[in-house]
Amino acid sequence: MTRIITVAAAQLGPIQRNEGRDVVVARMVRLVEKAHRHGANVVVFPELALTTFFPRWYVENLDDADDWYEEALPSPATQPLFDAIRRYGMTCYLGYAELAYEPDETGIMRKRRFNTSVIIAPSGEIVLKYRKVHLPGDKEFSKIRNVQHLEKRYFEVGNLGFPVVAAPVGEVERVNMGMLICNDRRWPEAWRELGMQQVELVMLGYNTPAVNQENRGFEAHHLRNFHSQLSIQAGCYQNATFGVGVAKAGTEDGFTLMGHSVIVNPQGEVMAMATSWDDEVIVADCNLAMCELGRTTIFNFAKHRRLEAYTRITSQTGSSAPELWQPNQAVTGAI
Amino acid sequence: MTRIITVAAAQLGPIQRNEGRDVVVARMVRLVEKAHRHGANVVVFPELALTTFFPRWYVENLDDADDWYEEALPSPATQPLFDAIRRYGMTCYLGYAELAYEPDETGIMRKRRFNTSVIIAPSGEIVLKYRKVHLPGDKEFSKIRNVQHLEKRYFEVGNLGFPVVAAPVGEVERVNMGMLICNDRRWPEAWRELGMQQVELVMLGYNTPAVNQENRGFEAHHLRNFHSQLSIQAGCYQNATFGVGVAKAGTEDGFTLMGHSVIVNPQGEVMAMATSWDDEVIVADCNLAMCELGRTTIFNFAKHRRLEAYTRITSQTGSSAPELWQPNQAVTGAI
């Protein structure tokens, strides 16, 4: 039986600060319709797809920012999106700011905030939830930045790990699906956690500024997109999976986010790429049988991975400098 | 003080099965001279640089293959190379097959074989030794391959971890250097082990067949080089390090190895690339200060890595399939 699914990346153009969810959701419904016309079984939206990228705005008291968050899915505002994916039998990845009332690590029930994504079945059921692990930026106002990036202020670090689920997509009975969010894609640890679960389709959304905002040298502007695609392509190749990276793009609240959403195959090849900075759908037929080659040969993990040599990856968080070699010392690394 | 070193990749053309080490070493000395004329402080040679890529040849009894290995460095055959790097004050990466007499894991002294590389100081002293961890291919003769790839037969898995050393190079007092060998470059775990030690220059040699030899579909020939560069570029970017990947290239014993040796900067950009399939030197001025940007911002490991979410990387070797989702079940990944 063939295992081909048609995947759509639904890139969003900018969402201005005062744009209502009703307008945004209407735009998303149009993109679902367009993805359906292109035969898609899966539609992937960006990170924080329902609002502007609000972590660029400093707030003193987070309780004043609750409007940016969702307390439930679906909600009256997002119901039309759920209706659309049900209508077209589509599986959907949606990124949003999550406001949850749940116990913290000490067992105390409280209001908690996460940068979250979900996989939604055509029925509207939530199949899988992920909360962003690699939050970039700062917790406090930064004086050296041109633009603030306050994800560490607005969100707690995700506490759900990197889950993968097998679920039906279109006619295919079982597709192994996992999620990343934005900055996660630069971290090979995140991809590997998914690869260890035989992921076949990694869905990830992002809001990435088109220029480095730290006023520091050595990074040409065009490398911003190169780094994004490099990380996605390497993650897909090294874990033998398809990947869909979806941008919120264009000039939002006066600041430019990069576009160039991509669909990548397990060989690391770009199958489709968005070329506007606006609402845009790209699609690709993904033959999941392609995941087998890498998984059973060069990246047959059981055959080739060597845990005894991976000593620092999970035993230390930060890096440490090596010893300085001295002439006439014993050879470092020799027995 | 500037921290600029000039790095040379000394690509080797093919070495035929019956070519003597004297001829090979003479070619390497020419490349050292050429690297010196280009102002190099460091010269990087390929994996198994002193012989043909012999793991393509099956032998029943490994003791019959001892001629492929080195028992000591320098040896009479390799002394001219050591003389050349001393003459020009150059630091050198050399890959070779190592025959060692040392205790195994059970404490018994025996003959052991490793796919090894060393960093040699201008004085001729061995600064650091590395033994290849990710051995590709098979231990036994494979009937499904066009060409054998018997590294798992010829070598034991490296037992020195992924060491990094700080040593002087040229006028720079302290350069953090690490090594990989061939297939290691495809494994983000290997790069990360080096990155955790603040590596600034990753040296790696390879012998990579120009076509996939497993008679299986889905991999266009041109992707072989793409995968190599993708892995090196991603490894450099994600660990904020320079990288030098050096090929043995061309048609060796009738089988083609890919070339396209590269020098890559911490932004993942290719600074220089070989374009012949023969002996060739490429050089690049590497400003080690470039490693700082990534290391202190987006890849500030201490600030951003989340060990508690890396649960599978070092707890399981092989991958395992995810659970199949059932409608109306609790949300996977939810609390």
TrEMBL record, chains A, B:
<feature type="domain" description="CN hydrolase">
    <location>
        <begin position="5"/>
        <end position="288"/>
    </location>
</feature>
<dbReference type="Pfam" id="PF00795">
    <property type="entry name" value="CN_hydrolase"/>
</dbReference>
<protein>
    <submittedName>
        <fullName>N-carbamoyl-D-amino-acid hydrolase</fullName>
    </submittedName>
</protein>
<keyword id="KW-0378">Hydrolase</keyword>
<dbReference type="InterPro" id="IPR003010">
    <property type="entry name" value="C-N_Hydrolase"/>
</dbReference>
<dbReference type="GO" id="GO:0016811">
    <property type="term" value="F:hydrolase activity, acting on carbon-nitrogen (but not peptide) bonds, in linear amides"/>
</dbReference>
<dbReference type="InterPro" id="IPR036526">
    <property type="entry name" value="C-N_Hydrolase_sf"/>
</dbReference>
<dbReference type="InterPro" id="IPR050345">
    <property type="entry name" value="Aliph_Amidase/BUP"/>
</dbReference>
